[in-house]
Specification:
The complex is a heterotrimer of chains A (329), B (252) and C (287). Chain A is an all-alpha fold. Chain A contains twelve helices and two strands. Chain B is globular, with a radius of gyration of 19 Å. The chains are: A mainly alpha (329), B alpha/beta (252), C mainly alpha (287).
């Protein structure tokens, strides 16, 4: 029995850098960014707001993909860091300042901090145990947020978050908020993309493929997993601060199981390991949940549940070949 | 100073003493073979030496330094590296990427979290692939390599860790005679300063390559000596096949 | 203190009934059934819908049992085509099912929390060693203990149970010796789900029925299973009783941090003994 298996992700951006001509890819990326930037000039405010939400959720999904697709750590509790970042950014905006980089930095830092506090236990486990532990952590963080209502507003959520201000001017218009979110999204995406393509990213893929072998060639894998866990938490916290800026309210479900599961769904729809794919998956999730949800009687979750089931059956390699090290590794 | 010294190594699984007080000394630059019938404890001993399994007693010294309590990661940093019995590589990488992974770790630089050209690492990976005869297969994904090529890649991966002690766990297992011959050539050409300890069932390969041999039987050292001493040993013959079949075992 | 211990026992037995199915299904099929919590909540809503009379309570138990059997068999059939895929695929499949079930329950029952009354004559309190204690919970301890003993005896002492244990220990070996265990695995899935819905009906008067309960209950069950070791009935029993006590004691002494205490217990076990207290070394996926 050989431990070599087929590549996890065929042509995924993070798994195997596409060997397409550099110029053409560059052109495509530029075109996408230009179209994204021009969107508020053409779309109605509602559509712009939906697109803003998509970008927020996409950055969250991309941070999760760093764990799931690149490192092979399937997390069901990643919303804990997204939500922590959102609460922190919201709290700072209300109580200290909403001036531009502050809520962002605080959100990212708190997301990373919470990940740092909880991550050391999770990275010592693997496979379904990792799934269970992250699930338990997510639920625990949610309950802590519920209990700490003097800061989080408890079951009512954190309301009355002011608009982000840039150089003193609040971003009251949906279009300005969109541009702000887009800019941060692009920065976050590029950071994750760079990390995935770096020597560190190669080591993460090595861990995903074969962790014992990585240890044998001298990589302290737990440390690497911890580092990427904290980084992913930080990027999720950054996405959370965007949520606070866009929705202006942060509530318990943003920390919870459902949000975490939808992010995982987004990653898997897009083909784990592909950062672009995760963004498209996030778009699908948000469109079903927020845009189509009301016309489905508010039961977008029902549709997403069905999508989950379908995706698992339809994806030819399963959930992008993420290997869970279970009993029979 | 010895390259590797094991003293009183023990490991049991329930009531079974798989390794039961083993002493082994490997001199620097040696080609030291570890042989023994099935169930002799070779694989367990190997895991104790490489650090992938915890000992239940005894010590492992690498170049005079006690590494018994160190993980396989730390042992690798101190110059111990290994190939696995079942080629165990990275399913989403090419041959060159695989070797680069180890070369980057042992190239002196740190592992950067940002993309960066690493000409020294690339060069070293090329060199190692060339050394094991895989230069023209550098961009082939690992799953597309043949079994023999994977074992060659294993050797390149282990050498990329710049070992002073190389552990080879059944390097020729599952190989065709042609592949086996190529492997022998490759191992025989390793730099003299690298000490090699290997487990192997193919006794032709053992006696072509080894300059010292340790025979394990039922978790204990039956005999340590030169290949000639092992060939001549009555006890080894009995352990393997029972009396009277020595000619068959060692051929001539 | 006595009240807390009794509460812990009640919760513990309830958790055992809930978790044993999860544990055996994982042990036998490597399927981590994330819909297990939703099945519990299904039972709780059924209990809420029929609460108020003994007839209703028993009807809820009966319907929940049938629904549980059917749901388990269906889940078993749905995951069967994914046997050769990764555990994550199967887990995600059951996660999708969990969403669908939870959402359907909201459509039928609304999203307001429902409280569930204990059956008549059990809704009062009795005095136990000088402490006033709800009668229903006392009965629950008794029923839970009986169910636990029955499940334990079936798995540990009967032929079918031996086959179940053998499949947990080495599935391929059981298949190699020519036993077609598909029927057994489906049956275990069905009965495990039946126990989950039954636990939901029984637990209704304690937990109520509300959206979001499925995740809470699922995590409690996962903690029990992880602590007890995947696939071990004895482990699930001990784990459930420990968690029952830890949870109630935690809520009593550190109400704000109760969930944290639980998580800490889980973390300590996973770090010290990744294979659980009773799991064999093969069950270790964590290091």
């Amino acid at each position: 029995m050989t431990a070599v298996e087929a590549p996890a992700v065929p042509g995924g951006a993070a798994a195997a850098p596409p060997r397409a001509p550099r110029g053409r890819v560059g052109l495509l990326v530029t075109a996408i960014v230009v179209v994204l930037a021009a969107v508020p000039l053409f779309l109605a405010p509602f559509a712009t707001t939906t697109l803003t939400r998509i970008l927020v959720f996409a950055l969250f999904a991309v941070s999760l993909d760093l764990l799931v697709g690149v490192t092979g750590l399937p997390s069901l509790g990643h919303a804990a860091y997204f939500g922590s970042g959102a609460y922190a950014a919201g709290w700072v905006s209300i109580n200290v300042t909403a001036e531009a980089p502050v809520p962002l930095l605080v959100g990212g830092a708190v997301g990373a901090l919470v990940a740092a506090l909880t991550g050391w236990i999770t990275v010592r486990s693997a496979g379904v145990f990792f799934l269970m532990l992250t699930l338990a952590i997510g639920e625990t963080v949610q309950q802590l947020a519920n209990a700490w209502d003097s800061v989080t507003g408890g079951a009512n959520g954190l309301t009355g978050i002011p608009s982000v201000r840039i150089a003193g001017a609040p971003l009251t218009n949906a279009g300005f908020t969109y541009w702000y979110v887009l800019a941060v999204f692009l920065v976050g995406f590029v950071v994750v993309w760079l990390v995935a393509r770096s020597p560190f990213g190669a080591a993460l893929r090595g861990i995903r493929d074969n962790e014992p072998r990585m240890r044998a060639i001298g990589y302290p894998t737990a440390l690497y997993k911890y580092a990427v866990f904290v980084l992913a938490g930080g990027v999720a916290g950054l996405a959370g601060s965007l949520l606070a800026a866009q929705a202006r309210i942060v509530a318990l479900p943003d920390l919870g199981f459902l949000t975490a599961s939808f992010a995982l769904l987004a990653v898997i729809i897009g083909g784990a390991g592909s950062l672009w794919g995760a963004c498209l998956g996030a778009a699908l999730v948000i469109v079903i949940r927020d845009a189509l949800g009301p016309s489905l009687g508010g039961h977008g979750t029902l549709v997403l549940g069905a999508v989950f089931v379908l995706v698992v059956y339809l994806l030819p390699r399963g959930a992008a070949g993420i290997r869970l090290r279970g009993r029979r590794s | 100073m010895t390259a590797l010294r094991c003293a009183g190594l023990r490991r049991s699984f329930g009531a079974l003493n798989a390794v039961d007080g083993v002493d082994i000394t490997v001199e620097p630059g040696a080609r030291h073979a570890l042989i023994g019938p099935n169930g002799a404890g070779k694989s367990t001993l190997f895991k104790l030496v490489s650090g992938t399994m915890r000992t239940h007693g005894g010590t492992v010294e690498l170049a005079g330094r006690d590494v018994t309590r160190l993980s396989e990661v730390a042992r690798c940093r101190l110059g111990m590296s290994q190939t696995m019995q079942h080629a165990s590589l990275f399913g989403s990488m090419t041959a060159a990427e695989t070797v680069a992974l180890a070369a980057a770790r042992h190239g002196g630089g740190r592992i950067s979290p940002l993309p960066r050209r690493q000409p020294a690492v690339q060069e070293r990976a090329e060199e190692l692939l060339e050394g094991v005869g895989l230069a023209d297969r550098r961009d082939v994904p690992v799953p597309a390599l043949s079994h023999g090529e994977r074992k060659q890649l294993e050797v390149a991966l282990a050498l990329a860790c710049r070992p002073s002690l190389l552990l080879l766990d059944e390097p020729a297992a599952g190989m065709s005679p042609a592949e086996s011959a190529r492997l022998l050539e490759l191992l025989a050409g390793l730099p003299a300063e690298i000490t090699v300890l290997f487990v192997e069932h193919d006794l032709d390969l053992v006696f072509s390559l080894a300059d010292s041999v340790t025979v394990l039987h039922l978790g204990r050292v039956l005999l340590s000596g030169t290949p000639d001493e092992v060939r001549a040993s009555e006890a080894v013959r009995e352990a393997y096949l029972g009396a009277g079949r020595r000619e068959e075992l060692f051929g001539s | 203190m006595l009240v807390s211990v009794l509460n812990g026992l009640a919760v513990g037995f309830l958790l055992f009934i809930l978790a044993v199915g999860l544990s055996l299904v994982f042990g036998m099929m490597d399927v981590l059934n994330l819909a297990h919590g939703a099945l519990f909540v299904l039972g709780a809503y059924l209990g809420a819908a029929f609460s108020g009379s003994w007839g209703g309570f028993l009807a809820a138990l009966g319907i929940a049992a049938v629904a549980g059997l059917a749901a388990g068999a269906l889940l078993s059939l749905m995951t069967a085509p994914l046997r050769r895929r990764s555990h994550l695929d199967q887990a995600l499949l059951t996660l999708g099912v969990a969403f669908v079930v939870a959402e359907l329950l909201i459509i039928f029952f609304g999203d307001d929390p429902l409280s569930v009354a204990a059956p008549p004559a059990l809704d009062g309190s009795v005095t136990v060693f000088g402490a006033v204690y709800p009668a229903y919970r006392l009965v629950l301890i008794g029923v839970g203990a009986v169910l636990a003993v029955v499940v334990y005896l079936v798995v540990e002492r009967t032929r079918v149970g031996a086959l179940v244990r053998a499949t947990v220990a080495d599935r391929d070996m059981v298949a190699t010796v020519g036993i077609d265990n598909r029927l057994v695995t489906t049956a275990v899935f069905a009965v495990g789900s039946l126990l989950a819905t039954t636990a939901g009906v029984l637990g209704g008067p304690i937990y109520g029925a509300r959206p979001g309960l499925d995740a809470t209950v699922l995590i409690l069950a996962l903690v029990v299973v992880v602590i007890g070791g995947l696939g071990s009935v004895r482990g699930a029993l001990v784990g459930a009783l420990i968690i029952g006590q830890v949870d109630t004691l935690g809520r009593l002494m550190l109400p704000e941090l109760a969930s944290f205490v639980l998580f800490a217990a889980l973390a300590v076990v996973l770090v010290l003994r990744p294979q659980g207290l009773f799991g064999g070394p093969v069950a270790a996926g964590a290091r």
